[in-house]
Amino acid sequence: QWIYLNGEFVSKEDAKISVYDHGFLYGDGIFEGIRIYDGNIFKNKEHLDRLYDSAKSIMLDIPLTIEEMEAAVIETLRRNEMRDGYIRLIVSRGPGNLGLDPRRCPTASVIIIVEQLAIYSEEAYRDGLVSVSVSQRRNIPDALNPKIKSLNYLNNILVKIQANLAGVGEAIMLNAQGYVAEGSSDNIFIVKNNVVYTPPCYIGALEGITRAAIMELCEQLGYKLKEEPFTLHDVYVADEVFFTGTAAEVIAVREVDGRKIGSGKAGPITTHLLQKFRELVKVDGVR
Ligand code: PMP
Fold first, then answer.
1. Looking at residue 52, which CATH number applies to its domain?
2. Most informative mutation of 186, 209, 274 for ligand 1 (most atoms within 8 A of CB)
3. Which of 44, 203, 205, 265 lies deepest, with the highest CB count within 10 Å?
4. Are residues 131 and 272 in the same domain?
5. Is there an atom of ligand 1 within 6 Å of 31 CB?
6. What is the pTM for the complete model shown?
7. Could you say which cofactors this protein requires (predicted)?
8. CA distance 211 to 244
9. Does the active-site annotation cover 149?
10. Counting Cβ atoms within 10 Å, is residue 16 exposed (0-12), middle (13-18) or buried (19+)?
11. What is the largest distance, in Å, between two alpha-carbon atoms of the chain?
């Protein structure tokens, strides 16, 4: 397995960064997770745009142009003979000293890892996941800047730990006001009376690229979509609940906090959206 590390291709064993890298010391950096389906890098432009927007927002200079980054991703895929899998793009502030000051980090670190992806089973897509809400709240800095896909994932990891303790695959995180925000690494949608709802990003949700694709599909398929805040009560009484994300795609939820959702299986709108999403991933991207 070849890993792109600051312009060079190194083996997995040799892919190492400095202990002074501020990505390691402070989580100072940004990342993207991208899928490649049968040689098609899904929503490539959207992911690269989000990466470069996140970088601009935190005043991080990526030492590659967006075109060079795309070429580096394609070369990493080629070297690994990867046509189906997951691409992780990481840009950290780079090595500096022990202080916080980013001015001491002259060069950002750029890392590209491509891997096979272990995702949910087909039964999980059909039958839905069991989920729980957790006490961990979407943290304030990210709630103010939910559009930055930063390396600061401690909050999400605490949600994941609570999900693990409850024995579920994904959990639901609220914001400080108690509105439903998102999962540990997925956006959330509910369906009630044939209307599809997802929280606006200002509630504290990442502007997910799968989320955007699903919103667009809703429009194309004629489902009414509302981007508005909702609570756990709305989740419990929803007809359908599903998560979206690059890794998870569109996965139904059949139970939340012990309340059965709808029929207790993936609902018709979720199933329709998943089917259309799987058609889309083959065409919407870069070959
Ligand atoms: N929310 C969070 C916190 C995430 O980490 C992710 C996945 N990267 C998502 C939502 C889903 O976003 P996307 O569809 O762009 O993968």
1. 3.30.470.10
2. 186
3. 205
4. yes
5. no
6. 0.95
7. pyridoxal 5'-phosphate
8. 6
9. yes
10. exposed
11. 56
